[in-house]
Amino acid sequence: MLENYKELPNGVIKQSVINKRKYDTEYIERSYNTYGELGVRMSYLRYGFIIGSIGHIPNSILDVGYGNGDFLSVCKNTINKCYGYDISGYKLPEGCLLSESIEIEVDVVTFFDSLEHFEDISFVKKLKTKYVVISVPWCHNFSDEWFSKWRHLRPNEHLFHFSEKSLINFMNENEYELINYNNIEDIIRKNTNNDKNILTAVFKKK
Fold it and tell me: Hey, what domains does the chain have and what are their CATH numbers?
């Protein structure tokens, strides 16, 4: 394992020593608004994957790390209560509500490109929701050489790294069971290698 990283018993890889990164509106502009129309397509893809996986339109949803709000803009058309949680201060889409807590009671909580940025992810067990949806970079960790050159390594930004097995293990520990997982986002977020790039999974409270 590379220096400053350790593999936890469940298989999740964690950065050991962290220099905190600032997440502000400039970060959002640089990270999300460059997608343009592709960001909107991604949001519809994610929305469809959720509805198809759980089998119905939820009444409420919380998007943790909502970025520029593209996904919530799609959700508000059919979901009654749409909440966003983000530390950047970026403006939410009209009709959506800002949540001061991750632990509000909703039908679905989503973490699209956000769970890996938290310094501590033990809060997942405290979520007050029936479904959790997560997309993270798919860490295959074939070798130290592969890991050191991986495009998603990003020290001090991506603090946790998941394979499909380690993500399932982590969520099982937090009392959630897998419903569905795939690399559907690779339709848009293509990888120059043959490796699956983005892992997207839906979990249900046990």
Answer: 5-205 (3.40.50.150)
